[in-house]
Amino acid sequence: MRTFDKIYINGQWVKPNGEGSDKVINPATDKVVAKVPYGDATDVDNAVQAARNAFDAWTNTPSDQRAEYLRKIAKEMQKRSADFEITMVEELGIPTSLADDYQVSGPIGACAGFADRCSQMDEIEEINNSLIIKEAVGVCAFINPWNYPLSQMIGKVAPALAAGCTMVVKAASQTPSHAFILADAIDAAGLPAGVFNLVHGSGRVIGEKMCSHPEVDMVSFTGSTEAGIKIAEAAAPTVKRVCQELGGKSAFIITADANLTDAIAYGVEDVMVNTGQTCTALTRMLVPNSRYEEAIQIAKDYAEAMKVGDPSDSESYIGPMSSESQRKTVLSYIEKGIEEGARLVTGGTEMPEGLSQGAYVRPTIFADVNNKMVIAQEEIFGPVLAMIPYNDIDEAVTIANDTVFGLSSAVYAKDKGSAIVIARRLRAGQCYVNSGDFNYDAPFGGYKQSGNGREWGNAGMHEFIEIKSIQT
Ligand code: NAD
Question: What's the fold here for domain 251-439?
């Protein structure tokens, strides 16, 4: 059991004003695995004030020194990588065999990567009689979800530090421990007091206070579209910059000439990994009518071979949902799919074989899905795949774009060139062609109701920059 009784404000671990503690449940065992203390609005005030006080000195710290701090933080994180990994397994429920790859090593590497971007703040552009310079946006508030918690945290903290911003951060209640371990790493790296501050509490109390605070210049939020709208509303009266990374319902177009076995293995894995709790999950698989039944059989066999079980078992590929309430939500969508007349190919609402306890859901595949169905339009956030047939590529593109979301997409074709032609027609912030890898140096973000703004790479850092023009 991990017990934290302090939050991190102004370079100190301090007792929060809030009362009681948040109990974190292991979704595989239903046991409490961590306790973290609740903060309140006064803690947010104190944290924001500390970030405000630290801003001038930090933003004027030479970029090579800021870079050095980022490298030190990455090193301190690396020392704690096993601790991060344990929290992912115990709090999120990701299997131990995937935890490091999917949740820990990527963000640590990316943190060090932002060190190399600090010097971009020194670049000056001349346009006629103007000097165009870059400045940090100011004090930032970061609010994160639970599904890739360390990655979402570092995707905000590292570029903000590189740009010269100071910050107050809040993790989600389901997976808070990584944020306390990160604060410990930052403290050990010797980051000046007040640059990074950690509070904890509910979205509606702590989160809204962070978003509406007049001393906060920017809010960066990752989470549901519903909460994203509330956050933007709370931030609007003080005209803050708001960066939103929200939900998705991404389409995967498989062309008639694609290697079906490879394409479907990629698509099914993409949906099932992290127990389907991935914002970019390719949850709508679009398959040509001519190969539809063949594709369904391959997908069924592939999903049924995935081991669902205890995340501490090295054989498990699919762990429990992050919480019992998430399990209930996913099961209600599976019921909805059956009610809507989709064909249940595999999975369903029963507990997976051999399991009687824990927030588990069977990897589930629906065929004969019409894109107008609820299971094709709403984000389920669980291991549920909808297979949708199409007649030609124009129809596939129309179906793919027929969604309020636009976070990700993918195309699998015989050759990359023809896949890229289709990729360019998809209204989404990313497209993965022939199983292309995630790239921490490339911009990540959504179109439409999947959000605005970008994380990672130079574009991710740009979010934290104000541009000033000086006329001479
Ligand atoms: P959520 O929106 O319920 O909560 C996210 C965070 O927002 C939590 O820290 C929560 O406490 C806080 N919050 C909730 N209501 C708030 C409010 N009114 N004011 C301020 N803060 C508030 O989301 P979740 O269930 O934790 O995460 C799942 C969602 O996140 C999914 O929709 C998923 O698609 C999305 N997501 C998006 C991305 C992306 O990069 N686009 C990445 C991961 C997850």
Answer: Aldehyde Dehydrogenase; Chain A, domain 2 (3.40.309)
